[in-house]
Design brief:
4 copies of one chain form a homotetramer. By secondary structure, chain A is an alpha+beta fold. Chain A has a single domain (4-98), classed as Alpha-Beta Plaits (2-Layer Sandwich). Helices cover 40% and strands 28% of the residues of chain A. Chain A has 3 helices and 4 strands, in the order βαββαβα. Chain A has helices at residues 21-34, 52-68, 90-98; strands at 4-12, 38-40, 45-49, 73-83. A 4-stranded antiparallel sheet of chain A has the order 2-3-1-4, covered by helices on one side. In chain A, helix 1 crosses helix 2 (52-68). Chain A is globular, with a radius of gyration of 14 Å. In chain A, 45% of the residues are buried. The A-B interface holds A 5-7, 9, 18, 21, 24-25, 28, 39-46, 77, 79, 81, 83, 85, 90, 93-94, 96-99 and B 5-7, 9, 18, 21, 24-25, 28, 39-46, 77, 79, 81, 83, 85, 90, 93-94, 96-99. Strand 4 (73-83) of chain B pairs antiparallel with strand 4 of chain C. Chains A, B, C, D: Residues 6-98 form the Thiamine-binding protein domain.
C-alpha cells in the first residue's frame, strides 16, 4: 500500500540512435537498487511511493546514470495519482479496471 | 506489430467522488469493442495503433460513453511513441526493458 | 471559443543533437498552415480545437514534416481538456488563473 | 537561467464541480510564495528550477494547500526538460520556437 502511484517515463534526447531501451533499462536498475515497488508497462513505469522526496531522489539518480552513459539532455514525463482518502497499490488499480 | 504505441489516460472531472474506476472500465470497454490490442497498467493503458484517425475515433467514443454516464468535463493524457524505422509491440517494448 | 484545449509537445528521438527547436518550429508551422488558434509555451503548445479528427490531422502532418527532415522516431505528449458544459479559450483559461 | 524547465499541471479529482480554477490559482500562489520563476499557460505552468528537491517541495506544498480546500485526491502531470549541456529559460525556449 502506498500514498501515491507515480507513472514515470524517461527519454534521452539527441543520442543519435532511435534505440533507447538500454537507457530505460538503466533507469529501471535505479528503481531496483532503491527497493521501490514498480511494474514496467510499454509507455511508463508505475511506481508505488509514499512521498515526493523519494521521487526527487529517483529522478536525480536516473539523471546521473544516464549522464554517465553520455546523455546530455533528457525529458521526464510523470503522472502522479495521489489519494489522501485511501492507500493505493499498482495491482489494485489494475484489478479495479479489469474486473 | 503496429506503427505506434499509444499510452492513454482518461480522467473525469467534477464527478463528486474520488472513485473513478467505473469510468476507466467504460473506457476500456470501448477498446475491447473496437478490437484494438491493449494492456492495462496503473497510470495508463497502452494501445497498439497504426494511425492517428483510429486514436481520434477512440477518444470520441470514450467521451460519448462517459458523457452518457453524466460526465461534463474530462482530461485525456496521451503519450504516443511513433517509430518510422520499425514496427512496435507493447510486449516487445516491455521485454526489451526487463531482459 | 472551442470545445477543447489541447496541449501538445512533440519530441524527435535519436537526432544526434540536443538542439531540437528547428523541429518544434516546423510543427508550429503546421498549426499556422491549418489556421488553428494556438499559443506557444515552454513545454507545450496550447491549441483550441473542436474535434478529435482535427487533432489527428495535426499529428499526421507534423509527423510528415519531421520525417521529411530525417526524423525516424518521435514522441507526442498530449493533454486534452474537454468541457461538455461550456466552451473554452486559451486566454480564458489563463486569465482565470492569473486574476 | 536554470538547469531545467518543468511544466506542471494539477487536477483535483472528485470535487463535485467542473470549475477548477480556484484550485489552480491556489497552486500558483505556492509558486509565488516560493519565489520561483514561472509562466502560466492554458494546460500547464512552466517553471524554471535547478533541482528535483525544489520540485518535490512544490508538489508537497500544493497538495497541502488543496487538501486544506477539501480535496481528497489529485493528479499531477509533469514534464521536465533537463539539459546538462546548457542552461534554459522559459522565455528562451519560447523565443527559439517563435522566431
Amino acid at each position: 500500500m502506498a500514498k501515491m502511484v507515480v507513472s514515470l517515463s524517461v527519454t534521452p534526447l539527441g543520442t543519435g540512435s532511435t534505440h533507447l531501451s538500454s537507457y530505460v533499462r538503466a533507469a529501471t536498475e535505479v528503481l531496483r537498487e532503491l527497493g521501490v515497488k514498480y511494474r514496467t508497462a510499454a509507455g511508463f513505469t508505475d511506481i508505488e511511493l509514499d512521498d515526493y522526496a523519494t521521487l526527487a531522489e529517483i529522478l536525480k539518480r536516473i539523471e546521473a546514470r544516464l549522464e554517465a552513459m553520455g546523455v546530455k539532455r533528457l525529458d521526464y514525463i510523470i503522472k502522479i495519482d495521489r489519494r489522501m482518502d485511501q492507500e493505493l497499490t499498482i495491482e489494485g488499480k489494475i484489478a479495479k479496471v479489469e474486473r
